Amino acid sequence: MTTGFEINEKLPTDLNKVNPFIEQTFQKILDLIGANEEIFKVKLALEEALTNAMRHGNALEPGRLVKVRIKAGPKQISLDVHDEGKGFDLQSLPDPTRTDNVARPSGRGVFLMRSMMDKVEFYDNGSGVKMFKKLS
Amino acid sequence: MGLEITINTREKDVYLVFPKGEINTQTYQILEDQTKDILNKARAIVFEMGGVSYISSMGLSAIFRIKLAMEERGGTIALVNMQPRVQLVFDTMRILSPQMFASLTEADDYLDKFLDGVQDGTIKPRDPLE
Question: Is the dihedral of CA B41, B66, B84, B86 positive or negative?
């Protein structure tokens, strides 16, 4: 019986690689734990983290990599996404839900990650993010 | 999963857009590209979202850009019949709430009032510099 799995991957900076990687990963997760509404939230958080890492962290430079580590068990999932950029000031992100900020796209990805996961921690000056979710 | 877009005319200058699939990092551009032609002539665009199983922030931003482009021309958009997961993403971001409807009938009521407002001058195009 499978009790979990771990994925360690280095993705090239290419936005077209994000969703195929996610689809492949989430098929494994579905095989492990079956249909679960919470998985959708993890999928969204992973897409936001990978897209941010490539667009903002690696500035879409194809030579830069994004390191991804995923640990999945029947009751919890942890994600770790790290880019090769300089990081960012978390405090400088606008609140994307404020009326005067809704037309600005920045901050939506981080806001969604925090809303969908139980725990979100940035490290290395923001060039890395670790996220965790319990599955009920 | 990819994204397919079907566009029908609902009434003169009012278009019904049926996206089917996921609106994500890989597919959001399909939505923008395929609605580009109607943006210049539509008074309203209704997105029938029942076929959308997933949306990310890139998809949200694409729909938001379409909304802003329409408002600059004195038009509007409406979103109807969202699946709960997609609704959750919109609700989390707290954007577009006044333009989300459970059914086409509800959206029609909103559009009728909006288009009447444009015609009688009580609703003005959005200033792009705002």
Answer: positive
